[in-house]
Specification:
Length: about 130
Amino acid sequence: MILKAKKGHSLSGVKQDFQKVKLTLDDARRLFYAVMTTQKLRGDKSSWASRPSQFYKKRWFIETGFSDLNRMGHRWKSKYDNTRYLDMLVRMLLYNSWKINKAYLTKCSKKAGKRQNWTLQSNQDDLEELFLEA
């Protein structure tokens, strides 16, 4: 079992704050997570916690991406294959442009130093800002 502190925290800091009664047990539990793995740990001990957590983080994003794709499809009521094919292509195009746009705007916001959660409204605001600057 590997314990990994969440961003902005250290395990020793969380432990000290808990022992000094600055944190409750529930608050302390929210500041770190445990990873159980059967993968043999190699390399430097300091990277043991980060490698499996990065692997599972990437895997989680892939799985949620597939669930997005599953939600994107639906049953068509059209009797014509061409109409269904066109509808599917438009959905894929919109989905891909949405993902590319999200990645681009996230990258731009990191460069500008403003950090916020990505929402459709923030996406629209950022696109308007980019359009007005161009």
